[in-house]
UniProtKB/TrEMBL annotation:
Lineage, uppermost ranks: Eukaryota, Metazoa, Chordata, Craniata, Vertebrata
Lineage: superkingdom: Eukaryota
Family: Belongs to the G-protein coupled receptor 3 family.
Gene Ontology MF, one: G protein-coupled receptor activity
Pfam families found in the cross-reference section: 7tm_3, ANF_receptor, NCD3G
The UniProt record lists the keyword Cell membrane: yes
PANTHER family hit by this protein: CALCIUM-SENSING RECEPTOR-RELATED, EXTRACELLULAR CALCIUM-SENSING RECEPTOR ISOFORM X2-RELATED
Protein name (Swiss-Prot/TrEMBL): Extracellular calcium-sensing receptor-like
Compartments reported by the entry: Cell membrane
Location, primary (coarse class): membrane
Record-linked Gene3D superfamilies: 3.40.50.2300, GPCR, family 3, nine cysteines domain (2.10.50.30)
Biological source species: Salmo trutta
PROSITE patterns tied to this protein: G_PROTEIN_RECEP_F3_3 (PS00981), G_PROTEIN_RECEP_F3_4 (PS50259)
Amino acid sequence: SLRMSLLLWWSLYYPVSISPLTEATSTQPACSPQGAFELPGFSAQGDFMMGGIFPLHYRVELPGTDYTHQPLATMRLAVEEINQSEQLLPNHTLGYKIFDSCATPVTALRAVLAVLNGQGEEQSPMCSGASPLIAMVGESGSSQSIVLSRTLQCSMFFQISYFSTCSCLSDRKEYPTFFRVVPNDDYQVKAIASLLQRFGWKWIGVIREDHDYGHFALQGLKREIQNTDVCLAYDEMIPKDYSRERVLQILEVMRHSTAQVVIVFSGEGELYPFLKEFVKQNITGTQWVASEAWVTANVLAETYPFLDGTIGFAIRSGKVPGLRDYLQTVNPRSPLIPPCSGQETLLEQHSAYMNTSSPRVAYNVYKAVYAIAHSLHNLLHCQAGAGPFHNRSCAHSTNVHPWQLQQYLQDVSFNVSGENMNFDQKGDAIPSYDLINWQRGPNGGPRFVTVGLYDGSKDSGKELLVVSVCSASCAPGSRKAVRRGEPLCCFDCVPCDSGKISNQTDSIDCKECPEDYWSNTDGTMCIPKVVEFLSHDAMGIALTVIAVVGACLTVSILAVFLHHRTTPIVRVNNSELSFFILLSLTLCFLCALMFIGEPTSWSCMLRHTAFSITFSLCISCILGKTLVVLAAFTAARPGNNIMKWLGPKQQRVIIFSCTLVQVLICAAWLMAAPPYPSRNIQDQHSKIILECSVGSQLAFWCVLGYIGLLACLCFILAFLARKLPGNFNEAKFITFSMLIFCAVWISFIPAYVSSPGKYTVAVEIFAILASSFGLLFCLFAPKCYIILLNRASSETQPSQAALQPHQCVRGNTVHLATTYAHVPPQENARARFDKEILACQTLS
């Protein structure tokens, strides 16, 4: 349909009467215009002519812009600079023919035909032969450029656009002669998608114009956000022929949508009347994201203050030397639309037209003209035999065809204002954008502030750089928290909670790690949780060494008692009970070793049952010993024969019975709900604690409670014997040992409950070892002292000490061995001591 429209307009504007093929070679076709082309035009003669199509006016009513458009002046400035240059195109000059497109495809078609054929010329050079034009600069709008490109293809003219960004124009099959000094929209939509991700805008709306630019931009944006968490709330199109009813429908959609971020792909000419109606609807809270087509539209910024805060990507700005001075002195050379007389100089200092600090569109026009000039320079300086054409020939400098110049344009590379300029195989320029934010200056006027950039040549994920924002970007490992009452661009960065991560910049939420994973220190990735149990690390080895030392020490004492089992000190202290106590203490020390290492089903069952049974055996033996001590003291009274009920057999029955109760409790525990290995992820979320679950809490506390019951009973009985005669020390030792035992296990309970991870097991082992050492030292240290140290003393000084018989106390003789007196030298002190002990046994 587009080609048919072109042919239609061609026939209307330049009806051509062509003779049959046999006559075509001899008859020259005649072209006659249907009417005068009355739009503004500018021209200057030169050796080589360039065409220029610029939107000097919009097709809609805009506030006071009836002056020459800035890109036009830039093209004229560039041509004059080149003509005055001694390095570029020496001895040759450039000329131009420039017409107004009014920013519409139809008028752009009329303009390009006027450029090719001239205004009011009845004999068209295009119809009569080769055109003197070599290149075309234009257009700004993508739809206009499509019309120009298809028209120029007929005569193999190439075109350089300074502002057309539609990705469709990169199709070399459809547009083989199209070039541009701006990136195509494929990169713009990538930049916008990166911006949405950067600020966490996931719910968006799109407004677009009804032209190729809007259609292809929307397709590209949908493609870029397809695999992201950005969703499109609505997509509305501004009608090509303005309709207030249709615009009101679009505004109604915007009013009822919860999407507050709106992306607009439109030229400022189409957008102006839409925004004019938008103001009347009182829609607030909209964050506008502008495409490069209007992101630097000064007219919109001055007219609609509600657009403050708009953000979007603009083509890169650059410096055009001498542009401001040129604009202040230039005079229009052809009549303009009233009220201009054609003689005004543009000296208004604060006009948007005079803002040349960082031109964008004008800078691209400047680059386009220089690209043509450098290509023509290379063509004219071609060396014979080194050309790009057939048989390595060069073009004729007096008859340059546009298709020949295009060959040089494709390979041109030059530097302008510090920027390297070249074209890729599709005729596109290097993809690069400035990120623009609309702000207000101190005087209240609009400012387009560059707050970042997008470089499409960089690696994926590193293209976007934001350098000026209300809040600095939140690094991975943190999330954005919007500040109450402030714009969306202002936020705080809050570190992700433990167990949550964010691996992207400016994340608005942190993701929770799976159950067996935890966040790393930076909060940027989930790593497997640390598996913790009391292993053979430094603490485990230390506890192992202490337990082994305790067991060895107990076995050594047992060996001492066995070696001295015939001595009165061992015999009087009920050697059988002493052996049982030492044996059970050895097992108590060794059972602590089962608590070290990775828990298994067997180790979990053994560690608790072995511990409870061995301690029950130990306390039962001490209980039997306490009963015998009390009975022996009571038996010394006349008529008391209680000792016959506490003989060796009865003592064994007491020990067996007390231990059997604990065995039965453990058996019931193992059958009902035995301990088992478990993975504890509740107490410490960053770790997986391998521990032994007790299975039945009731059984566990029954086991500990029974041991505590035996210990308390033993403590009470020994406490009752505390007032026995001063030399009767065994009851005091038992009392003190039970006091230490009870203190250790009472303090164990809160420490056990509050200790985290492997320290829970370490506390339990410490309680076992501490109570075992307490019993060992309190009960057997004095006896070992008597057996070993006093024996050595008596053998080295036999004449200085002897046992005093009056110290003998019925039922107990422990303290007798510590009391000595002077005896005659000829009498053996040890023999005297043994006799006194036997005497005490006889009394008992």
